[in-house]
Input
Amino acid sequence: MELNRNGAAVVGVDDHFQRSLEAGKFVIPRCEDCGRPHFYPRILCPHCGSANLRWVEPSGRGTVHSTTVVHRRNDETYNVALVDLDEGPRLMTNVTGIEPAAVRIGMPVVAVVGKAAGAGPLLTFEPGEEQC
Ligand SMILES: [Zn+2]
Output
């Protein structure tokens, strides 16, 4: 985490996360004191309250915890899902590369950075390999 000489964050954690995605990197904060990662990014560890956080790159692998198909007025549909990263944190995201209704709970997914078209989200997930 970037700090100024008063110890305040120079770049907000949301900005840092967004800038990393724009640079093609998916990062999450991990607590140096209790060792647990979290998401969404916060300035204090939600597990132990420590400010001693470091950005780490997760494996990108996860599992669909819940899934929803959103129908838009123009008949377009897209998927919104909660994905549990292998590292633990759960995040809200979009599963792409598959019909929105074909996304299943328990499906393995992998993070994809920067493939969304236009002004869409930079971080999405696609179906991954079944783990045997
Ligand atoms: Zn902690």
The radius of gyration is 16 Å. The longest helix spans residues 13-22.
